[in-house]
Automatic annotation (TrEMBL):
Keyword Lyase attributed: yes
Entry keyword Secreted: no
Record's protein name: 4-hydroxy-3-methoxy-5-polyprenylbenzoate decarboxylase
HAMAP family: Coq4 (MF_03111)
Top-level taxon of origin: Eukaryota
Keyword annotations from UniProtKB, A to Z: Lyase, Membrane, Mitochondrion, Mitochondrion inner membrane, Ubiquinone biosynthesis
Amino acid sequence: MALWDPYRHDMVAVLGETTGHLALQRIREKMRNDPEGNQILQERPRIRLSTLDLTRLDALPDGTFGKEYLQFLNVNKVTPDSRADVKFVDDEELAYVIQRYREVHDFVHTLLGMPTNMLGEVAVKCFEAVQTRLPMCILGAALGPLRLSARRLQILTTTLVPWALTNGRNATFMMNVYYERYWEMDVESLREQLGLTPPPTF
């Protein structure tokens, strides 16, 4: 069901949990070996409406990461509370790792400048597949294009996929980013700091 309908977030969540054990172990090791990533593991911050100060984010100047993230939520009519809680990962720390992965997904969208339509989702999945090696990301990147029109498929294969794969390889490991510390930073400066190239026009 997750592969048939990528917008079934509940089924995508189950797929990620039941197929991702080895990848989650690898992600945890990369986080443990990075100062910022290890701090995230220790403090276990959550991204929920209850933990976000949306009024503060709205008051930030245009172009800051926090303001861009809030605009992403508003434009795409999404909320951080739509991310399902983990049910099928027994290891407590690994359960947090996949929960964190889900909750920072919209941050990655914001920094990559990708919308939540099928083109944008496949591009983000390509990026995440390279970074995390989670089977659900690899499957989403491979099978998502089957739902696209010929014109959009051409845009994806000639522009978005090469850009997403290159960024996935070259950028900072995104699970090691304590995003909540960067609300006030200019989003272009943050992209540069993380090794992300600007999103292509399409």
